[in-house]
Amino acid sequence: MRFLTEDALLKCDHGGTVGLAPRQDWVRVAGRRVLVEDDLLGRPVRACPMVTPTTPACARTVSISETPSLSALVRVQTQGDRPRRVYLDTATGHTDWARLSTVSFAVAEPGQSLVGTGS
Ligand SMILES: [Zn+2]
Predict the structure, then answer these.
(1) How far is the CA of 103 from the centre of ligand 1 (A)?
(2) Is 96 domain-assigned?
(3) Cα-to-centroid distance, 82 and ligand 1 (Å)
(4) What is the Å distance from ligand 1's center to 46 Cα?
(5) Tens of pLDDT along 32-78?
(6) 71 within domain boundaries
(7) Does a structural domain hold residue 100?
């Protein structure tokens, strides 16, 4: 499974795009920052097309499924922060669509193909 970087593409089930903001800049792959624990939580979802008169589009991510999403082995710890697990290309979770947290999001592209881990 590959690590996710800031160039990863994550989409809600409707095709909206999850906006990324890496919190650490110490560990990089080919110069691009690796995403670590909590980077995918509470992120905005842009351009989700699933809008009806009664249900707004996905606005943000609200939960992460930890076991498939986070490496069991690889952590990054930067000064003044706790160790944070690295996100893998199997990352998934839910958005706030219709405010019920029932719509999934997942990785379309990890952003790099060089570095990964078995778990
Ligand atoms: Zn959506």
Answers:
(1) 7
(2) yes
(3) 32
(4) 9
(5) 999 999 999 999 999 999 998 988 999 999 999 999 999 999 999 99
(6) yes
(7) yes
Neighbours of ion ligand 1 (CB under 5 A): 12, 14, 16, 48, 50, 58
Is 34 contained in some domain? yes
Spatial contact of 118 and 1, defined as CB atoms under 8 Å apart:
yes
Task: Supply the range of the domain harboring residue 30.
Answer: 9-109
pLDDT at site 99: 83
Number of structural domains (the chain) is: 1
Model confidence pLDDT, tens digit, residues 18-44: 999 999 999 999 999 999 999 999 999
Residue ranges with strand state E in 2-113: 9-12, 17-18, 28-29, 32-33, 45-46, 61-64, 70-76, 84-87, 92-95, 103-109
Q: Ligand 1 center to residue 63 CA distance, Å? A: 14
**In this predicted model, what pLDDT tens digit does every residue of 99-119 receive, in sequence order?**
888 899 999 999 999 999 999
Q: How many other CB atoms are there within 10 angstroms of residue 10's CB atom?
A: 27
